Amino acid sequence: MSQNIALKLARPNILKLKPYSSAREEFTGNEAIFLDANESPFNKPWNRYPDPFQQRLRQRIADMKGVKRENIILGNGSDETIDMLFRTFCEPAKDQVISVNPTYGMYKVSAGINGVEYKAVTLNPDFSLPVDEILSLVSTTTKLLFLCSPNNPTGNCFADEEMIRLLNGFPCLVVVDEAYVDFSTGGSWVKKLDQYPNLVVLQTLSKAWGLAAIRLGMAFASIEIIDLMMKVKPPYNVNTLTQEKAYQALSDPAVVNKRISTIIAERDRLRNSLKELPVVQKVFDADANFFLVKVENPDEMYEYLVKRGVIVRNRSKEALCEGCLRITVGSDGQNNYLLQAIKQYPATENDITLKQSWEKVSDWLVTPERKAVRHRKTKETDIRVEINLDGNSKADIQTGLGFFDHMLDQISRHSGCDLSVKVNGDLHIDEHHTLEDTSIALGEVFAESLGDKKGIERYGFALPMDDCAALVLLDFGGRPELVWKAKFKREKVGELPTEMFEHIFKSFAIGARCNLYIKAKGENEHHKIEAIFKALARAIRMAVKREAGADTLPSTKGLL
Question: Is residue 552 part of a domain?
Fold first, then answer.
């Protein structure tokens, strides 16, 4: 199929359109006095418009996906990229698009908004694609074919051979929505863009990445298709906060991969457990983080679960989904609560077991993970720090400085957190950059893992060790400050210059956005600094402690 398919299918007015040129397109440097975009000079950095083309973020995505940056366009969620496709290729009241039924409802809604005819073919009873019937609907006004794979709500991936037949036989654009592909054993079609010039792939950070709140959708296609869509998109469609949060999240996919593995394991466990319940007629296979469950009275079961604090999706009115509820896989606690509720169906309002379990529903709901990863890379250092505040004192410290490793190990062992620190620094020059950058990154993972800080104690206090007295007062209140009252007689302890100790804790306070008051006395310099690190760890242990079920902010101001 010709690479020029994009030009053949595009709306004539889009081909002629000269897109809006923003101030940030005409000058792309960073070091300047910006008087070109009518922005306020105050409230930095939020006074500046975001990068209209998200170059830095798109490059990170390109590196991950193995494509060129020019093959990517980003949107305010996948819904915006869907709308861009309609506005780029479909003329209102003239063109048509094709999809299947049941599937994601936004394709039909977008068609209606844009005044484009929408035709849908019902899937085969086994949820496979009726390829011949789809191809029979193609006309001279057909522009797009939408396929969600894994499909929502059926949860299945469409077979490669079916997709290839459509890509080869469909004379228009084939849009493959891969919102749930991370939960599938099948590969992404992004890798096949070069083979099919009419292929467009949609992905999102909302599902597997757990970032639905930031609204970031991605479309991958040939450069010709992307260039046309770039004409249509609003100039600043992805805000700076979204770009920064997405870039940060994408810096360490290993964390997300662990979560995906957990969700898949829970999906399989939940499906197998539901199969054993008499009220359940069928549990469907799934390649997503959800699946369909067929029950005898879906409306009644839905209302029953709502009354017990569990919200699923009633899909029983959809084609091929008669009698089905769609269940999203939750945490192990949420899934256990769901199973208990369904096991007791049908229960009356006065059923004592359900009543008690509902009163304790917070015991079943997931407690937010307090984990964070920070990858800090400069010209002098390459640092990766990973923390789990609710861990088991597991430590893996490799900074290249033995005594510093020993001190950071104390933080893990005495605070109770799991801590991994891997550093590649310019120790051939001196210790300064390794100590400073590691301390900043360590503070930053504490700040990020604390999240909104609801329910924590906030303050920490600690005292002595051996012949030394070390006092560390800690406040995770959000204002970085260090008061340092400790002096050392020796030039070094281990490989660490004692002049750097104050700087280490100052850097940590800045990264963690915390107040630190540190005071130490003693004769043995090794014991003195070790006492400070242990006291800090015990203070952290107290400050990050979270009361079960607590959801209040430890501040009279209402913010931290």
Answer: no
